[in-house]
Design goal:
33% of the residues lie in helices and 15% in strands. It is of the alpha/beta class.
Length: 268
Amino acid sequence: MNDITILVNSCDAYSDLWLPFFTLLKKYWPGEIPPIILNTETKNFSFPGLDIQKAVLTETDCEAWGKRFKASLKQIPTKYVLIFLEDFWLEKTVDIAGLNACVAAMEQDKSIKSFSFVPTLWDNIKDGQYENFELRKRMGHFLVNLQVGLWRTSELYDLALDNETPWQFETNATYRASKGVRKGDKYYAAIDGCPQVFTYNWKPGGAVHRGRWTDGVDTILSSINITMDYSIRGWDRDIPVPTNSHKSLRKRISDFIWPFVEWFKYYR
């Protein structure tokens, strides 16, 4: 644990999620919790028993998520960083032995850049090297993602760009990372159905999706005696799911050709 810093990526607009997040982190993390960096714009937050430091930013760094993300990573002194989003609320005790096993693997094999602690929705390479994990393919979707994951801090910093949103980062950094995979870099993801190091409701996107609460949030908050006015955000189930027919022809054409443009940029 001495080689790990926790980075919680958030923003001021989601500060109502911080109390539940850190309450659950404290509840389900056995033993001493590593130092925490909170990546947000202007607000500070403290919680008893946790070492939470707000990322040191300049005024211009607050303008773009990518700048804040890079500034946060730059001030992390440890070799490894464990990334969270503020709506990834833990539901079971963290498997510290499993986390330590990932650190040990990265210490032994310098080509391993990250362990993602959630399964993917795509086929991976079952190389059998590490229990409960499988190797991501070079051209795998979301090779880089912001799900809970253990990263080499320097690697994550090198993959980030100042002007990207979180969604652009996941897509564009995947292309950037795939060039390293061609040279031997390795990215691992959890195997679906196997015991998980971190257990949280990742399938709907976390506790909040599209700015609204997801199903089950009220049960979680009730279990830790936190009250919330759910009417402020509303529920994700109340939002009509958009379909392709709602998009303009220009937008549909753009969505179709955009992946090919990105692949050309990074594989030419």
